[in-house]
Amino acid sequence: MDTNYRKAIPIEKRVAITLFALGSSAEYRSIANMFGVGKSTVCEILLEFCTEIWRLLQPSCFKMLPLNRENITELVTGFEVIGFPQCLGAIDGCHIEIHPSSDEGVDYYNYKGWYSTVLMALVDAKYRFTYINVGSPGRCNDSQIYETSSVKKEIDSCPLLSEMSREISGVNVPVFIIGDSAFRFSKQLMKPYPFSVNQNNGEKVFNYALSKTSRVVENAFGHFKARFRRIGKGIDNSVRNANSIIKACCVLHNFLNDNNDTLNAKWLRALEELETRRQNPCDISYASDDPINGEMIRTALCTYF
Where is each DDE Tnp4 domain found (predicted)? Predict the structure, then answer.
């Protein structure tokens, strides 16, 4: 508020400070000097903005859960356009560099030798996040995070996914999601056939179709990190505040996609250079597959392709 000593920082300036902080990799001290405020003020404004943007936009930007017939139809139609039937979304995890305290360091130390937190996301055909799980330590595997997530409970218990089955190659195929080989294979989650030297042509074609479709989640993460350089470079806030920043950026990513915002090619090139210097952690699967329920569906899709 305004006082006898100074005027309050206008809302327009607060938004400008936050968007510049999220969209660049500049230090908070440099941002403070640029806008004529204190370093602690930049951090305070950033966290206030992220908290409010999540509170206000999250209900309209993440409408998938709970699942209903309208949402399922919209998501499945989007993937059918790009050539994969009965797909609800593509799921994967993205490691974001953070700087935890020494007490928390062991949990956040990932397989490639740096500290990270995991953003698990389900993505639709338009590169929008339909579900996010933020804050799991970097040592956690994608499958471990998914098995305990709310989206898995929703997918496993939703009767509409079976009711909206479609006959493919003589098999009633329910609506499912797709993921890479790190996830547990089941009738609700399709993943590629394991690599084999003598792999038949049908399995190769299925793996190619699934890989091509699941690129939507990799592209979404690429666009996400390119738009918000603070995410791509690494978050230097505390772990608790880092989660708030990541969630706000996810909401803004969906907001920009809905409004047909364009991506600068320079941002994508800068991200590629950063990613080549920082290798992605390995995905190691600890969960056992459930081939009895899923193999018939995967075989039907293999025949379809």
Answer: 91-254
Global pTM value = 0.88
For the chain, the residue count is 305
Give the position of tokens 């018939």.
296
Helices 28-35 and 11-23, packing angle to 10 deg: 150
As a whole number of angstroms, the distance between CA 217 and CA 234 comes to: 20
Q: Are 186 and 297 in contact (CB under 8 A)?
A: no
**Secondary structure of residue 1 in the 3-state scheme:** coil
Distance (Å, whole) CA 86 – CA 168: 10
If asked whether residues 188 and 255 sit together in one domain, one would say yes
Same domain, 102 and 145: yes
Percent of the chain residues past pLDDT 70, beyond the cut: 92
DSSP notation for 20-70: HHHHS---HHHHHHHHTS-HHHHHHHHHHHHHHHHHHHHHHH---SSP-HH
Give residues with Cβ within 8 angstroms of 92, minimum separation 6. Answer: 120, 121, 123, 142, 179, 180, 214, 217, 218, 221
Is residue 297 within 8 A of residue 173, CB to CB? The reply is yes
Name the domain count of the chain: 2
Same domain for 87 and 224:
yes
Same domain? For 28 and 75 the reply is: no
Determine the structural domain holding residue 263 and report its residue range: 64-304
- 13 and 125 both lie in a single domain: no
Is pLDDT larger for residue 95 or for residue 1?
A: 95
Q: What is the pLDDT of residues 188-229, one digit of tens each?
A: 999 999 888 788 898 999 999 999 999 999 999 999 999 999
| SS3 of 119-176 | EEEEECCCCCEEEEEEEEECCCCHHHHHHCCHHHHHHHHCCHHHHCCEEECCEEECCE
Tens-digit pLDDT profile for residues 11-61 = 999 999 999 999 988 899 999 999 999 999 999 999 999 999 999 999 888
